[in-house]
Write a structure and sequence with these properties.
The chain is mainly beta. It folds into 2 domains: about 20-235, Tachylectin-2, Chain A, CATH 2.115.10; about 325-520, Jelly Rolls (Sandwich), CATH 2.60.120.200. Helices cover about 0% and strands about 50% of the residues. The strands form 8 sheets. Strands 4, 26, 29, 31, 32, 33, 34, 35 and 40 form a 9-stranded antiparallel beta sheet that branches. Strands 25, 27, 28, 30, 36, 37, 38, 39 and 41 form a 9-stranded antiparallel beta sheet that branches. Strands 15, 16, 17, 18 and 19 form a 5-stranded antiparallel beta sheet that branches. The radius of gyration is 24 Å and the shape is globular.
């Protein structure tokens, strides 16, 4: 046992963390973008050991047609009046110079729901936050302000705030420009905390890449003016490419019952110093308020630490088992670790009842569809892992396919699949799409019987090797050559590994039955779920 927490605390695609303590439970919410269910929630009793407890957004949103890197951004949770309040952005388009970003509020008595119908707030920007002012009982919605008139660089022009009336269930009064950007620019993710007679405004600045940072400002009055921390930024990895945690920013605060303070924040761990294949992750730092009333890292300086002190009285297990996820598809529903793209995995295409003991995926549109892509996938949470699955599929056309894939978005994926070729019948093939450039491995491997087809992929940092065997054969055969997957990085999400079925001949015209799925991480890492 040790008293140190190892970062990141949430590995793989878990960006934009917002942390809160409600009674004796800590929660972290993360952005989900185009993956559903949306707004993943983790819980902890001690800030060191985290478990995935629920996902909030299900049928409240319609993400069909939303482009990559859009949809659900930066959720924020507050607890007031015996209610959980969740605010979030549904981004429909980011086509410059505009950004169609709609902000909503939902409430529930329990983190598990049921949640209310969404209340529309505004569309002036993104990353909303709800502040409850205990002094006068008023509530305020903050968000980044998008100004399409800015001709150079990012169009985030600062933070705007507007009063929210819970009885009328709408924002009221005129918006107030609360804060302009510092020289770091790209101001977003605002949160207000009241401490020692000040209102503290914490924002993310510098963009979500290597210049990402946490900016802190304060004011005696809620409406400002706000003075910026003279040592700003409070947290960043900028100009320190040697650090294992990069892109540090997008912070939020929580206080323990014993009065200690911690900040959850976004980070990446680029492989080979360049490729954040796991996406943007969540880390935690211990912080304190100095004599001048400014927020500081207890470790000193302003760079993120791999290890931070746990709260008083908390013991952390030094090494936990490697991450394993298994689903034998016994039903009656998918395990909560799974996600689907833009649509929920419902019984119309993802069924346990059609063939008990199997997951039947009815084929959807193409792998690049933004509407009916029938895929279920899990986050890659390790730099080294192996996945195995098996399926039965009877395609009649090259337009029908099902199999195992590594998937970043509709422009970047690697797909090993079962299909049909004229003159050969059932075959194994592989396709690759890198930065929207599509290639197909010329060779097709003929399959001469109807036995189950076993597929596997083994990933070692930027290298991926697919394998297969047929029926009860025990020897895994390499499926084509090793693939470089460094292109499965970038953007706002992280790499997923999943199973899918597609039919471009007839929508829902074929189906594949999957019999099992197993993910084994091969990193030495703390367990998170």
């Amino acid at each position: 046992m040790t008293n140190m927490i190892e970062n990141p605390i949430l590995r793989g695609f878990n960006p934009d963390p917002y942390i809160i303590r409600v009674k004796d439970i800590y929660y972290i919410l993360v952005s989900s973008f185009e993956w559903l269910p949306g707004v993943r929630v983790y819980e902890s009793k001690d800030l060191a050991h985290w478990e995935h407890c629920t996902d909030i957004l299900t049928d409240q949103v319609d993400l069909r047609g939303n482009a990559k890197n859009c949809s659900i951004w930066a959720p924020q949770l507050s607890y007031h009046d015996n209610l959980f309040h969740l605010v979030y952005t549904d981004v429909k388009s980011t086509k410059r110079p505009f950004k169609d970003a709609h902000n909503y509020l939902i409430t529930a008595e329990s983190i598990e729901g049921p949640w209310s119908e969404p209340i529309y707030l505004n569309s002036s920007g993104f990353d909303p936050s709800l502040f409850h002012d205990d002094d006068d009982g008023r509530k305020w919605v903050l968000n980044a302000l998008w100004d399409y008139r800015i001709t150079e660089g990012n169009k985030s022009s600062g933070i705007v705030m507007q009063q929210y009336d819970s009885k009328q269930q709408r924002v009221i009064g005129d918006p107030v420009k609360l804060f302009d950007c510092t020289p770091l620019k790209k101001t977003e993710a605002p949160h207000i905390y009241k401490q020692n007679g000040y209102y503290y405004l914490i924002t993310a600045e510098g963009g979500t890449g290597s210049g990402h940072a946490v900016t802190v400002a304060r004011s005696k009055e809620l409406l400002g003016p706000y003075e910026v921390d003279p040592l700003n930024p409070m947290l960043t990895s900028s100009d320190h490419p040697e650090l294992p945690l990069q892109c540090a920013g997008h912070g939020s605060l929580v206080q323990t019952p014993d009065g200690e303070w911690y900040m959850a924040h976004l980070c990446t761990r680029p492989i080979e110093g360049k490729y954040a294949i796991l996406g943007r992750e969540s880390a935690i730092q211990q912080v304190y308020w100095n004599e001048e009333g400014w927020l500081r890292l207890t470790a000193g300086g302003n760079t993120p630490q791999l290890q931070v002190p746990a709260p008083k009285g908390v013991s952390v297990q030094v090494q936990q088992p490697r991450h394993i996820f298994e689903d034998s598809f016994e039903g009656p529903q998918l395990k909560k670790t799974w996600n689907s793209l833009r649509i929920l995995a419902d019984d119309s295409w993802c069924s346990f009842t059609e063939r008990p003991g199997y997951l039947r995926l009815v084929a959807g549109e193409s792998i690049q569809s933004l509407f009916q892509h029938h895929i279920v996938a899990i986050r890659q949470t390790d730099m080294r892992f192996r996945v195995e699955t098996a399926l039965e599929y009877d395609p009649k056309s090259y337009l029908q396919m099902a199999g195992l894939l590594l998937y970043l978005n509709d422009e970047n994926y690697l797909y090993a699949y079962v299909s049909h070729e004229e003159g050969q019948g059932k075959v194994l093939r592989m396709m690759r799409c890198e930065e929207n450039s599509f290639t197909l491995v010329p060779k097709a491997i003929a399959i001469k019987d109807d036995l189950p087809i076993h597929l596997a992929v083994e990933v070692n940092e930027t290298q991926a090797q697919f394998y297969y065997h047929i029926g009860d054969e025990s020897v895994w055969v390499p499926l084509f050559e090793t693939q470089n997957i460094s292109f499965l990085s970038g953007g706002f999400t992280g790499n997923f590994v999943g199973i899918a079925a597609h039919d471009m001949q007839q929508f829902k015209g074929s189906y594949a039955d999957f019999v099992h799925f197993r993910y084994q991480g091969n990193d030495d890492r703390p367990s998170q779920d």
